[in-house]
Every structure is written in structure tokens, then in C-alpha cells.
Amino acid sequence: MSHPHHHEPHRSQHSGWLRAAVLGANDGLISTGSLVLGMATAQASSETILLTGIAGLAAGALSMAAGEYVSVSSQADAEQADARIESRALREHPELELQELTQIYIERGLTPGLARQVAEQLTAHDDLGAHLRDEVGISELQRARPVQAALASAASFTLGALPPVLLAWLWRGEGLSVAVVTSTTVLLAVLGYLAERAAGGGGLKGAWRVLLWGSLAQAATALIGWAFGVSAV
What we know:
Strand content: under 5%
Structural class: mainly alpha
Shape: elongated
Distance between the termini: 83 Å
Oligomer: single chain
Order of helices and strands: HHHHHHH
Helix content: over 70%
Number of helices: 7
């Protein structure tokens, strides 16, 4: 009698791209929204406010992509260096590496005989993969992927930055500052809630956490715009 394969979804498998996407969206919304708000409270012209928002979106998206690519590439380089070290050790000292793998399984609770058997079978199947996973802690699901992380950061930053830029483009007349603050605050709460829910949490703590820092950023840029605005020159 055959049994269907049972698989539970785990949140940590998606931690890499989820972290990059959440960081990018929050950064895009907070930084671009704060830029637009600062220029609006400075009483700049509509064209200047819009240009500032677009420039902030472009610069931020490219900066996020470059930073994420460099950071994750460094992680990938370290993983590749570890893979080379293990590969060389397996070629030069296969028996010592087998003993090392056996000891790892013994420390995890297997009897010495069973640990040796498991180590031998995994070595025969994929010796390098077994050592990277169980000795170094590098698994295929959590391998560093620089291009994926960079694209996720740039795309999410752009999505986060679009609402304040669209407001700067479409809004005419008084009240742009209030509109930016209101929309940014609501979207930050939604993003924080969804991010924590996606990570397996309740959502409310994530919403309040993002709201706190987003509100501080908006308050700071609004104050700067008010103090050093066009009317103060």
C-alpha cells in the first residue's frame, strides 16, 4: 500500500527573497514618501515635487539592487569557498571526512552503528552535498542567489515608491502633504502586517513596528521641509 508524500510548507525556505522584498517595499514607500512630503512642506512647485519623487524612485531602486547584489554575492563567494574546501578534503582524506560525518550524526542522537551507515549512504549518494548541508550548514534551498535578491529588491522598492510618486503626479492644489502622510501610513501598516503574516506571525506587531519608524522618517523630513522651505528662503 502506497502512502501519499506528506510535505509541510516552511517559512524559512523563503527567508532570502522575502527579506529582500519586504525591505525594498518598506524602503521605497518610506524614503520616497518622505522625500515627496519634505518637498511638499517646503512649498516647492508641483513639477519639482514630482521630479524629486521620480529621482528618489530611480536612485533608490538601483541602489537597493546594487547593495543587495553585492551583499548576497559576498555570501555566495563564502559558500563557494567552503564548497572548494570540502571538495578538496573529500579527495584527500575521504575516510577522515566519513568519520567526521559519522560523528555529526552521533551527536544528533543516532547510535554509532546507524550513524556510520547513514554517513556511508549519504556519502555514496552525494558526498559534497552531505558535508555542506550537515557540517557547514549550507542547503540548496537557502543558497545565496545574488541576481534573484537584487531583482526582488529593485522591484519591491519600485512598487513601494510608486504611490507617493503617483500622488505627486496626480494631486493638484492644497493638501498634498496630508494625502502623502495618510496614504503612506496606511500602506506601511498593511505592508508590516502582511510581512509578519507571511513570516508566520500575527501581523499586528509587524504593522506597529513599521509604522513607528516610518512615522519618524516622515516627521523628520516634514520638519526639514518646513524649516528650510521655499518660503523660508
